[in-house]
Amino acid sequence: MKLILSLFFFTIATQISAGGKLIGTSGVTQVEGSAGGGLVPWATLAGYGTRDEQGASAFFSAVTVDDFKMSAYGVAFSYHDRIEASIAHQKFQSDDKSIRLSQNVLGLKIRLFGDLVYTEWPQVALGMQYKNATNLSLIKSIGGEGEHGTDFYLAATKAWLDGPFHHNFVLNTSLRYSKANQLGLQGFGGDKRNRHSWLLESSLGLFINRNWVFGVEYRQKPDNLNSLKEDDWKNLFITHLPNKAFSVTAALVDLGQLGGRNDQSGAYLSLQLIY
Amino acid sequence: MYRKVWLSLLLVVLSACQTISKQDDSLYLDLGGKVGISKIIDIFIYEIGETEEVVHHFEDTDLDRFREKQIEHLCLLSGGPCVYTGDEMLPVHQGMNISESEFNAITNAMIRALDTAGISIAIRNRLLAIIAAMRADVIYQ
């Protein structure tokens, strides 16, 4: 991980100009390390690289809800606006420190067709996230099955220029095929359901201007464990992009029942470097 | 009685047709008409000159002609009472091999020009949606 991070900063330091896409058009980085919203992977690729260029991004996100904290960091690269590779690490712990979980996520995404801004049809991408959780004994103890698994998703994203009130909007819908419990931190499949589920994830953002985006997200979740109920996730976010190199996102998140505790809601903060 | 209803309906339909056929010049007016558009294009040309990655495309450009055609084009695109006497988008960009990045750099120059001219975000977005639709005829030709 450290090697990849240093490689990333080396790449940034040795390149003079950033990619040529318009500001805001790569989205931010979602919690599993893929370019997207905060929770949902989009069809956009990391960084501002066009079809002639490379792009990259690095992120750090932290979530704090009533009884738990979670953090994630990682890097992502894109090549010729066609393919994205990402790596991320997630940590999850209860405030009383009795539960500590973590996992690594390797992501791959291929843009199939379309351009977020310039085509009439949406930008569409196919992606996968391979996840490797660390705590098999804990996963087994809560009725979970494997410690690694792969999610597949199809994402369609469209920037809607001159939408209602002459503002620009971004709409995303992703369909995920997954058996990950709480992103995979609690294993993959369980004693209640040990199969993949089709899950709907969606984001809607309003560009207040070029530098501020305001929106909502929804992520449907599976419910595979008898002992721990899993709820759909929601957020209300605001992103500031002061320039093409940096973005900061703050959000109110509602994670529902988590780790056996009800009504886990709180705050999310994410920082992103973009190239 | 029915005759009256039919007549008024006919009137409504006719007046609707008239509204449809009349050119919507609200964007043209919002940009400040001919004077406002000339000012925007002047700033736009200055901004292009400041954009290192695209300025080489304009080395042999007759700037007075370019300015005149840009004003006509923007006037026409925004629904104003102008005739565009310049070239079509596709042939004029042929052989220039303008990249996606360069197109966006020009778009950014236009956005800065609109900003400097004090054009609001709502009006700017209306114009950018029109400009975005021309991209396919401009890049990689």
Q: SSE layout and pairings?
A:
The complex is a heterodimer of chains A (275) and B (141).
Chain A: H1 2-14, E1 28-29, E2 35-36, E3 54-65, E4 68-79, E5 83-94, E6 100-113, E7 123-133, H2 136-141, E8 144-146, E9 148-160, E10 168-178, E11 188-190, E12 197-209, E13 212-219, E14 233-243, E15 246-254, E16 265-274
Antiparallel strand pairs in A: 1-2, 3-4, 3-16, 4-5, 5-6, 6-7, 7-9, 8-11, 9-10, 10-12, 12-13, 13-14, 14-15, 15-16
Chain B: H1 2-21, H2 26-30, H3 33-49, H4 63-77, H5 89-93, H6 100-116, H7 121-132, H8 135-138
Comma- or semicolon-separated keywords:
heterodimer; A: Porin; twelve-stranded antiparallel beta barrel; two-stranded antiparallel sheet; 16 strands; 7% helix; 53% strand; B: 141 residues; mainly alpha; Globin-like
Written account of the structure:
The complex is a heterodimer of chains A (275) and B (141). Chain A is mainly beta. Chain A has a single domain, classed as Porin (Beta Barrel), CATH 2.40.160.40. Chain A is 7% helix and 53% strand. Chain A is built from two helices and 16 strands. In chain A, the strands form three sheets. In chain A, strands 3-4-5-6-7-9-10-12-13-14-15-16 form a twelve-stranded antiparallel β-barrel. In chain A, strands 1-2 form a two-stranded antiparallel ribbon. Chain A is globular, with a radius of gyration of 18 Å. The two termini of chain A are 19 Å apart. With 141 residues, chain B is mainly α. Chain B has a single domain, classed as Orthogonal Bundle (Globin-like). Chain B is built from eight helices and no strands. The longest helix of chain B has 20 residues. Chain B starts with a helix and ends with a helix. The mean pLDDT of chain B is 89. Classes of the chains: A mainly beta (275), B mainly alpha (141). Chains A and B meet through loops of A and helix 6 and helix 7 of B.
